[in-house]
Amino acid sequence: MPIAGLVRSPPVYLHTLLFAWQSGAGALVAAALDLVLVAWYLVARRRLRARERSWPWSRTLPFMVGIAAIVVAVNSGLAYYDDSVFTLHIIQHYLLMDFAPPMLAFGAPVTLTLQALSRPRQSMLARALHSRVAKALTHPMLTVPLYYLTMPAYLLTFLYPYSEAHPLFHDLTHLWFLVSGCLFWWRIVGLDPLHPRLGYGTRLLMLVPGVPVVSFVGISIMSMDKPIAPEHTLADTHTGGELFWILGGLLMLIGLISLVYHWMQDEERKAERMDRELDRQLEREPERSDDLITPWWVARSEGD
C-alpha cells in the first residue's frame, strides 16, 4: 500500500523506501567516500585513545548521524524516487543541504584530525586552514550567496528539469548541495578552527535571509500552474512546495536555537574564566584585594 501521507503524489511504497538501495556509479562512489570518512574518524579517535586522550561521544554521534543522512539521501530507497516524486526529492534536498552539514560540523572532524596527526602533518594542515584559498572558500561573502542562491537557481529555473533528464548532472547537484551546505553551516554552528573566526552576531545575521528565501521559493513552487518537470504531477509539485516551505522554516529555527545555545554556553565559559582569573589575582595580592573590596568610606574612617 502507498504511504498515506503522500496520497497527493505518485504512489510511494514503504518496502521500496526500505529495500530499493541504489547500485549506480554515483551511489557507489558516494558510499565509498562515506565509508572512508567513517573509517578515518574512528581511526583518529583510536589514535587519541592510544595517547590517553579522549574524544567525546557528543561529537562522534552527530558526525555519524550526518554520514547516515547522506547515505539515506543518496543510496537508500529515497533516491529511487527522487526523479519521480518531487516531494521526496525535497526531503533528499534538505538532507544533503541542511541536515547532514550541521551534523558533520557538530562532529568537529577537522579538530579531531589535527589532534590525531603527527606534528609535521598538523603543521601542514594548520597552514592549509590559514591559507588564502581556505579563507576565501569559507568567507561569508562567498558562502552566504552560494547557499541562498542555490535553492532558487536550482528549483525555479531550467536546472531542475535538466537534472531530471541527465543522471550525471543530477548526481553532481547532490554533491553541490552537500558542499554548499557544509560551507554555510560550518560557519554557523561548526566547532572547527576556521579563519577568520566569526562572532555570534555575524552568524546570526547569516541566518536572517533564510526565512524569506525559503518562503519565496516554497510559495513560487506552490503557485506553479504546471508541473516543475515533466516527470512530476502538478499535485506533487504543489505538495513539494509546501514541504519545502515547512521544512525550510523548521530547519532554520533549529539552526537559530542551536546558535543561541552555543552562544550562551560560550558566554558562560567566558564568565567562568573571568571569575577564575579574578580569584587568582586576589590570591596573589591579598592585602591589595582587601583595599579593593573595602568601601572607600570605611577605609577613610579607619585611617582617621
Task: Tell me about this structure.
The chain has about 300 residues and is mostly helical. The protein has one domain (about 5-265). Helices cover about 75% and strands about 0% of the residues. The protein has helices spanning about 15-20, 25-50, 55-75, 75-80, 85-105, 110-115, 120-130, 130-135, 140-155, 160-165, 165-190, 200-205, 210-220, 235-285, 285-295, 295-304. Helix 9 (about 140-155) runs antiparallel to helix 11 (about 165-190) and helix 13 runs antiparallel to helix 14 (about 235-285). The protein is globular. About 30% of the residues are buried.
SSE inventory with pairings:
Elements: H1 14-19, H2 25-50, H3 57-75, H4 77-80, H5 86-106, H6 109-116, H7 119-129, H8 132-137, H9 140-155, H10 159-165, H11 167-189, H12 200-207, H13 210-222, H14 234-284, H15 286-293, H16 296-303
Task: Describe, in short, the structure shown.
It is built from 16 helices and no strands. It has helices at 14-19, 25-50, 57-75, 77-80, 86-106, 109-116, 119-129, 132-137, 140-155, 159-165, 167-189, 200-207, 210-222, 234-284, 286-293, 296-303.
